[in-house]
Amino acid sequence: MNKLAKSFAIIGLSALIIAGCGSPEESESTNKTPAAQPAAAPEKNEEDQKTTDQDKGNEEGLIRIMEQNIAYTVNGEQKEETAFLKYNDNQNYSMYVLPEYELSAEEPNKDVLMWSKDDSVFMRIELLPADAEWALVEENSKAQLAAVGPEVKEAQTPEDPFFNNAWSMETKSGSDIVTTYLIKNQEQPLKLTLFTKDADHRNAFLEMAKTIMKENK
Hints:
By secondary structure, the chain is of the alpha+beta class. The protein is built from 4 helices and 11 strands; from the N terminus they run ααββββββαββββαβ. The chain has helices at 3-15, 46-60, 134-148, 202-209; strands spanning 67-74, 77-88, 93-97, 101-107, 110-115, 118-127, 153-154, 167-173, 176-183, 190-196, 213-214. The strands form 2 sheets. It has a 7-stranded antiparallel beta sheet with strand order 4-5-6-10-9-8-7, sandwiched between helices. A 4-stranded antiparallel beta sheet has the order 1-2-3-11, covered by helices on one side. It is globular, with a radius of gyration of 23 Å. Residues 13-42 and 49-59 have low confidence and may be disordered.
């Protein structure tokens, strides 16, 4: 990652304040007949089993299938590839990562998902508590963006249920583009900060971010 990303990360910590702190008896009969044997359940094919495993994982947070196809765009080019499930111990979550990207811990409570060919193109991932003070998180995020570029403006959020009530702002510095998304999801609030440039990987990063799931310990 470049110096821009490092300076961006330093600003946020001091300004961010987060609040919170017996069975029934059997009837008797003179004429007893053998109990009917239950019919064998039909075998599930591979696709049905994958769907069952994925549903169970979504409900219990325990099991997820090991791969999932993700459709995305890079520089306007439509693509679809198989992403593989990765576990992150730093913030205790799992997500599906496309082949050209790498997920790693950056510091406590912060991880980076970077483009393998250029680590200055990346997304910072921060899982926030359910009782986050959004007004203060927004203020801190604006301050971070203002430290990168003088003009901070609202950014468009994708038309997707994942981004309902999301907050997004963006700034530029030369060829660098920094975009922050606050995902105000009650089940798992997120702060996503995307660092891109001429290679526009924002859609790919966001599609992978949609697969983030907190793991139960």
